[in-house]
Amino acid sequence: MLLSMNWIEDFVDLSGLDKLDLIHRFSLATAEVENEIFFKGRDISGIVVAEIKSVEEHPKSKKLHLLKVDTGKGELTDVVCGAPNVRVGMKTAFAQIGAAIGDITIMPRDLAGYTSYGMCCSESEIGISDDHSGIMDITDDVPLGTDIKTLYAVDDIIFEVDNKSLTNRPDLWGHYGIAREFAVLSNRPLKALPTDDLTVYDNLPAVDMKIEDTLCKRYSTIKVENISRTVSPVNLRIRLYYCGMRAINYLADLTNYLMLEMGQPMHAFDARKVEKIRIKRFDTPFTFRTLDGVDRNIDENTLMICNENTPVAIAGIMGGLDSEIVDDTTTLTLESATFDAASVRKSTVRLSHRTDASMRYEKSLDPEMTVPAIGRFLYLLKQYDSGVQVVSRLTDEYAVKFPPVTLDFDQKFVDRYTGIHIDSDTILHTLTGLGFTVSYNEEQETFSAKVPSWRITKDVTMKADIIEEITRIYGYDNFEINTTRSPLYPVRMTPVKTNEEKIKDLLVKQFALHEVHSYVWAYNDELKALGIAVEPNVKLANATNPNIETLRRSMIPTQLCQVKSNVGFAPSFGIFEIGRTVSGLDENNLCVEHKKLGITLFSKTENVRTLYFRLRDMLAALTLDIKHSELTFAAAKATHDYEHPVNFNNVLLNGTIIGSMGIVHPVVGKVIDKKAAIVFAEIDVEQFAAEPAQSIVYDEPSKYPSIEYDLSLDIPEGISYADLKECWQTEGSGLLKNVSIVDTYDTDTIHRITVRFVFSSAERTLSSAEVQTIIDHITASLANKNVSIKMQ
Amino acid sequence: MDERILQLKAELERKLSETADLMGLDNIRVGYLGKKGSITALLKGMKDLAAEQKKAFGADVNKLKEFAAAEIEKKTAELKQHQIELELRTMPTFDVSTPATCRCGSYHPITLVQRQCETIFKSMGFTVEDYAEVVTDYECFESLNIPKHHPARDMQDTYYLENGQLLKSQTSAAQNAILRKYGPALIKDGTPIRAIFPGRCFRNEATDACHENTFFQMEGVMVDRDISISNLIYFMKTMLSEVFRKDIKVRLRPGFFPFVEPGFELDISCLICGGTGCPSCKHSGWLELCPCGMIHPNVLREGGIDPDEYTGFAFGLGLTRLAMMKYGIKDIRDLNSGSLKALSQFTDDE
To answer: From A594's CA, which of A59, A286, A340, A648 has a CA 20 to 30 Å away?
Structure first.
């Protein structure tokens, strides 16, 4: 919202004060002021009122005229002017030789053979409106030679407040409310608003008006006749223009002026069109043409202002085209009302139509304002159009009142909340300045503050709200800052958190994987390109992008998309992410969310077996490092179109399935890269974290030498290494300290591994005979499994 | 002296001088001193000598034997030394200016920034909490004093799900749960609530270089008997000075957020110009960094904590924004792209 310093100064005398400093303080105490401040009129000088005494055609130009203008100095000045609206006797704004307009200094200038000693200016050139259709037509009765800046309020400081920072302050949507803040900040009094005395019309007939729906909190109206003025006074137009509004006609301008001044939106109906005001909703939808000429669909939730049964305005949003003020309007019915903020908000969303009025109504305006606004409107109307006549009495229906709010608090409360001491005088002074009615009990150090009507609609309703009022004016820069005196306690992290961080560290530092982030929904287009179907799941209800409608059930499809986009990054790489997935809804219709670790490895240089085992080893290393336990794997059935049916394994920790690992299905894999090997794993981080870590059991190293014994085993099909393990559990196996595979040999028909057994005792040196006895037991057991043994 | 001894000695001296390698030297040793060596043979042949000759001959042969052993040892040391010198001389110079070929993994920049913040807060006694991404209307709005028709609930801002839940639009969605989790210990034992909760948030908006629908925030709360605005300013200033590793000036301005009262926008002195004004702070000297405030009494009450007994502050830090500021990331979309060209650069940063 743009604000005029001149306008603010109508209500508070700021003379002698640094305005920029005040604006800065306002920004820190009240609402955020945008950085750029506009100094209107600063680059304008030497422009005076002049009268055109003669107009001649330029002999060589159809557009140009040769003028003689009188600037009141006794002699006429020759001017060449291209404006179409020049006429003898017209008074206009004239930039004399030496005058400045922006960067330009006016000098004598040749225009097609004639010298112009100055320039007649349009309002746009002076910067007071966007009208550049012709030179300014000054109708005010002032001596020639009067500086335009003494005649009109060209000079002004305009600053902009971020609307977002006014969301909770309905009272700041007009200059008067802003002036109140400036008054408090500068410690100067706020002047009363001059208004028309409405009681004198009490004997006139009422306007036929009725609130039929309490979404209208208050409706005040009055009828005025005999309006003759059509164009607004220049100063009024300048203010509107500086504050970002265009002048339309006198009555419309005046309603806008009132809105910018008091924050109260008003609407002027042509009284011929609106005789029986009814405020209501309709049961059936219909189309309504607003004054901007747009047909809008009105539904049963939208509050309408009607002339009996004919809608004439969308309440709080915009008037209708048929009832708006036109050039021959001489009688108006004025609307000054308050509507339910939520209802206006919802209607604007439904209609996708936000207006200056609706923006204010959405903030929950003070219904107490409607009547003073009418008084103010009439005051201004009469000031500029003396013949107007009020023909009705103030007709006012106050359907819903906000209950008054009085807040009781004590000095201790303020001190505790602020952490500093702000004395009672400052508190009293601040609150009184902001319009609170405050009483103070010195003995008890208690305050009782009645909240002004313009603050109870929304933002000051409880004790904590008072703190903000006191502290923001006191100034946060003036706060002494202190640490707390709270006791200290050990900080414990959750297992999920500590596990998560360790997983990340290991994968990055030990396995050189890259951590990525992604989105929680499936990427429809990207998955389609890979030939992966989006798994049905909970959908977004209001996604604007159809590519992202379904929540993902697994991290892997997402990672395959990311692998594809990274194919050119390196011949081999691996990515991981700890992210979320959702596996449908539970019995309470709530999403079942999981925290998952996804890992995908890609390689053009290694075969799929090597890559797969590297992934297996990664998972094993994570578990060994974090849990001091060993993972187990169980062949499982692939259930997704991106999973290779062979080598799909469940991953188990302490017998619980915590995830799975597999190879990418060749159909998908070939789209990503024709030759690369791609493998993936997905682990449920919460399940992983839930498994306790085994404590470290120290095994004292034996002081006696150990004996190694290698066996080469030809393993028949259908037997896995895990199946062999029970063979080591024989008599004397307590001396077997370690078993490892030291070599493998594979052909189409042979699967051979060389297993190394390490034996040792803590008490003595073992003899080869006793080791041989254990080995004999082992080989006998292996023979039972049809494993043939080749001694080393 | 026996002719054979003199001859052998001369021969040995010649052979030693001709030998250039340890292998040849060993052959010489075996040839003279070995079991079948010529000196050994001389000793063996002594049995044929007359007794009076035996003594002198034996002494001479033993001298020769000692001489041979000493000479061979000397020559061995010489050759070994020579070999070391050769090794030293022939070692080529390596060009270490060639690019290193290390295999480095990388962390997501959000992880790095998040860890830095967590470390600071942990050191100040804050616990780190984690929270779901799919939440209820109650968690995200109602428990946070956001009335039914607040703009924050507008359909265009929040991703709602078919089942009526939503993707959390702010980390504050965890506030109620955290108050409820730690509230009992506060009330019973006086253990203050100190927690931060980083997390992913979602806003239903179009993405461009500055806007993302998925981003990270970190929320923090502290609740105890007499937590004040003065404390809030202290914590924010201390924490931010740690984050940016320099003394940061902070300033508060009123800011409206339904879950705090009073609410503030916190600005920090511009990191680039230090407050004198430059293009990156739009010449104001300040950067708007994080919303904060005193926890609204309704929010405390909803979390089972009596606002007349306890007060607290809350703040929200944009981790995504912080990461972008810290590393000069210009396009926010790089963060969720999975692009390793961008992300692999973040190896570690403690």
So the answer is: A648
